[in-house]
Write a structure and sequence with these properties.
Elements: H1 2-9, H2 13-52, H3 54-83
Helix pairs in contact: 2-3
Length: 95
């Protein structure tokens, strides 16, 4: 009986692939925007920090990577929830 409920909740494969491609496109656009914003506003300060204090540069660089990942995941999650799209995850869909 529980197996029947599991199959009824599954999202069709084509829909998951479409949603995955949408997610990759969103990530791509956000990464390009982030790259140019970071290059424009953080390029010179990070280059000066690299020359003056390598340890601080490494810590700040790792922090920027983590913040970027969290923000990108949050934005795409909000976008997918807003559009009502299912994500390709191991958990059950929220909808």
């Amino acid at each position: 009986m529980e197996e029947e409920n599991n199959t009824e909740q599954q999202v069709p494969f084509k829909q998951l692939i479409r949603n995955f491609l949408i997610e990759v496109a969103v990530y791509g656009v956000l990464l390009v925007v982030y790259f140019f914003v970071a290059l424009r506003y953080l390029g010179d300060p990070l280059a000066r920090l690299f020359d003056s204090n390598l340890l601080a540069y490494a810590v700040i660089g790792l922090g920027l990577i983590v913040v970027q990942a969290v923000v990108l995941e949050s934005v795409t999650s909000l976008l997918f929830d807003f559009l009502g799209l299912h994500r390709l995850t191991s958990g059950t869909p929220k909808h």
